[in-house]
Specification:
Order of helices and strands: EEHHEEHEHHEH
Oligomer: single chain
Number of strands: 6
Shape: globular
CATH topology: Leucine Aminopeptidase, subunit E, domain 1
Low-confidence stretches: none
CATH class: Alpha Beta
CATH architecture: 3-Layer(aba) Sandwich
Largest sheet: 6 strands, mixed
Radius of gyration: 15 Å
Helix content: 40-55%
Strand content: 15-25%
Distance between the termini: 18 Å
């Protein structure tokens, strides 16, 4: 599995799936979540409402992931995950790792071969970008090792992108990846 790190707008990535750093309501918000909802169009909000009605009526739990179509995005799917909010006392790195792992599992389940991640929980949720990068790369590496049998049979992810909106966060991810 190849890993790419780039400073770009995740809503423009031509990958099979992009990951949305969503809130538990799945009804849109600010930052990456708001950008994805705006770019995907109003159909995404309707799909998220349907997910709430049928799968997660109490909201998506921290660390879990669900998928919707991408609608007007270049990506076929949007994988929604709720990162832990450090400012609200959610400081367990295992919760953050679960976001990456569950998103990867969901990507494989829908047949995605490429997926793009933002810096889940960095920024407004108060996690340090370096810690997010370390947890993300560890989760992707563990997933890649565990899924090597799937890859050998030609099914599984081939590309994971980390698409970061800020130049500073991009530099941190690159630094962690190279160390």
């Amino acid at each position: 599995m190849r890993i790419k790190i780039m400073h770009a707008d995740i809503t423009t990535r031509d990958v099979d799936a992009i990951v949305n750093a969503a809130n538990s309501s799945l009804l849109g918000g600010g930052g990456v979540d708001g950008a994805i909802h705006r770019a995907a169009g109003p159909e995404l909000l309707e799909a998220c409402r349907e997910v709430r009605r049928t799968k997660v009526p109490d909201g998506l739990p921290v660390g879990a992931a669900v998928v919707t179509p991408g609608f007007r995005l270049p990506a076929r799917w949007v994988i929604h995950t709720v990162g832990p909010n450090r400012r609200a006392g959610q400081t367990d790195p295992a919760l953050l790792a679960s976001c990456f792992r569950e998103s990867l599992i969901t990507a494989v389940e829908v047949g995605a071969r490429s997926v793009a991640f933002p810096a889940i929980s960095a920024g407004i949720y108060g996690w340090d970008a370096r810690e997010v990068a370390e947890v993300a790369f560890d989760a992707v590496g563990s997933f890649s090792s565990a899924s090597s049998e799937r890859a050998a049979t030609g099914s599984g992810l081939e590309l994971v992108e980390f698409v970061l909106f800020s130049e500073d966060t991009t530099a941190v991810f690159r630094s962690v990846f190279q160390s």
